[in-house]
Fold these 2 entries.
Entry 1:
Amino acid sequence: MGRQVLVTGGTGYIGSHTVVELQAVGFDVVIIDDLSNSSADVVDKIEKISGIRPAFEVFNLLDSVKLEAFFEKYSKIEAIIHFAAFKAVGESVAKPLAYYRNNLVSLMNILDCMSKYKVPNLVFSSSCTVYGQPDQLPVTENTPKKDAESPYGNTKAISEEVLRDVVKVTPDIKVIALRYFNPIGAHPSALIGELPSGIPNNLVPFITQTAAGIRKQLSIFGDDYNTPDGSCVRDYINVVDLAKAHVVAINRLLNNSNADRYEFFNVGTGTGASVLEVVKTFEEATGVKVNYKIVARRPGDIEKIYADTTIANTVLGWKAETSLHDTLLSAWNWEKKIRNIE
Ligand code: UDP
């Protein structure tokens, strides 16, 4: 058995892909998930891909009694990747307290247990949302953070500050925060992928559902931005590439004792793509037309953002590898599989 890693939110979108990549290099993975936004059969799919069934415990991380019992039971855990969190921007505006409580208290419960049960290493899911609309592009890790646009974004910004302050006074703990740009796509097996509940908020699930005929039309939110074609620009990162960044981060925590105890990295491709480019690339990759119309801007959207990934490339030795074309094709293959489309 390899070294043991806990993945919270391990049946979720990024979590499940990360479990598979951890298993592929020999880690012994244990998942905690409360299944609030995922389903238990993801564990079967993980097993189908890797040939290894991860240990799986179902509970919510706000339950500190259960979390302590968990660490009593799994005493060999050496590192934690903490994905479990609420992530819907719009919902967070409507339910700020639920977001602050869930995302912050669960992190604090984990930090308490790291001290109590001597688990020294944590990888935290952060987000490029901490930058807001930066004054200069691409954004580096040192680009000043702006006020968050939503309670969700604020939970990520606050979590990073909590981690920085805790690490300062807890010499036994090391943390790497990964600031994700826009994760998209699915596993090449099409066994795991993103499963939004209800109408998708995010661009790529909306595109694939429109292509599959589940949605009538994609609304493109604005074509009058100060960008080459007027639509917003983002840095779309392949979910398997993103998962691999977590494996690299875990290895760095476990094996590099000279690293700073609190580090944070941008995880993106380094290249921006506009909404219209994404639609066009999807159509080229799949041969399927996407019915769309241009509508008004979506409140709260930033105009453009993409990552400077130099630090992740050089310090972590990690780089995004998959093209936007191949990533969009993987998203379509996943959508087709779950909808039984030939
Ligand atoms: N977008 C769009 N139509 C949609 C969903 C998203 O035009 O139905 C645009 C959105 O305005 C943004 C980009 O796609 O410019 C990415 O949005 P998403 O919600 O996926 O991620 P965000 O960057 O907002 O977190």
Note: The pocket of uridine-5'-diphosphate is lined by residues 182, 201-203, 206, 218-221, 232, 234, 275, 298, 301 (CB under 6 Å).
Entry 2:
Amino acid sequence: MEALLEEVQRVGYVNKPVASDVDLIAEINRLKREKNAVILAHYYVDGDIQDLADYIGDSLGLSQQAASTEADMIVFCGVHFMGETAKILSPHKKVVIPDLNAGCSLADSAPADKFAAFKAQYPGHLVLSYINCSAEIKALSDIIVTSSNALKIVESLPRDQKIIFAPDANLGRFVMNKTGRDMVLWDGACIVHIDISLEKLQRLQVENPDAEFIAHPECQEHILSQADYVGSTTALLKYVVDSPNQTFIVGTEAGILHKMRQAVPHKKIIPAPASQNNTCACSECPYMKMNTLEKLYNCMLYEQPEIFVPEDVRVKAEASVIRMLEMSK
Ligand code: 13P
Ligand code: SF4
């Protein structure tokens, strides 16, 4: 066991080859039953993992599930800050993630020491942090928000309340534009959403004149200004289902297309083009894609890598996350 833990610390996941005759899906389902585990998956992980999950959702939905689950073990197929949020909300449960290396450019953009110094420059400001941040940043924040509830939470605050918004400057600017309020922004960004190419998008719109363009608020302002609708991943999914339109260009991580195509197989769903020359010519989060069936199987079998949050940090972070959950009701 000690050697296994050392290996997990070194490479970030259980690096044991799985025999080719193992039926991964059947085995993961067996482990889920035997260990009373729940699999939570974000819409951005691969479709084969989404299809196995007990709950698939956006960041808000997933944290609500993590707070209310009866399971003994939470297996979080997403990125590191999501596993941390689950541990913050369910400290007595075991929380595991398939790969510790699954980070997030937004969370990485805000190191706790630099953020504490930034915050100290703005006395009297309320700190609203997007859930895509580390437990330490959550502990330095007053209220956590997600892309589902950021507008609602900001609008519920007194108009003269000064606000710091971190770490996503694009979401912050979107909220400022929508609410007409000023906020002090931390300059973080999602590497996936800021990579959507306006030039390629406009070409796609010419080729698909009937398509509605819908986008996630982590996109840059010049992309959002083209959008017929802006919302969180869950909101985008709902929009595609509810809209009478038949063709959509979707400006977010391409993993969401899996659920969209399952929900409305007769509609045409086109991923918004990334500027990079990547293999799928769409937007893929390299961190979310670190979740694989093999790593998920090993993670459930060995119950590693496990997420820990120091108790003093957890208690402070919990207060800001709970405030969000209360304000989202
Ligand atoms: P939501 O889950 O709030 O839509 O955010 C998307 C995202 O980038 C998660 O990392
Ligand atoms: Fe972070 Fe962007 Fe990946 Fe979401 S899509 S986990 S915000 S890097």
Note: Residues 2-102+288-307 form a domain with the Rossmann fold fold (CATH 3.40.50.10800).
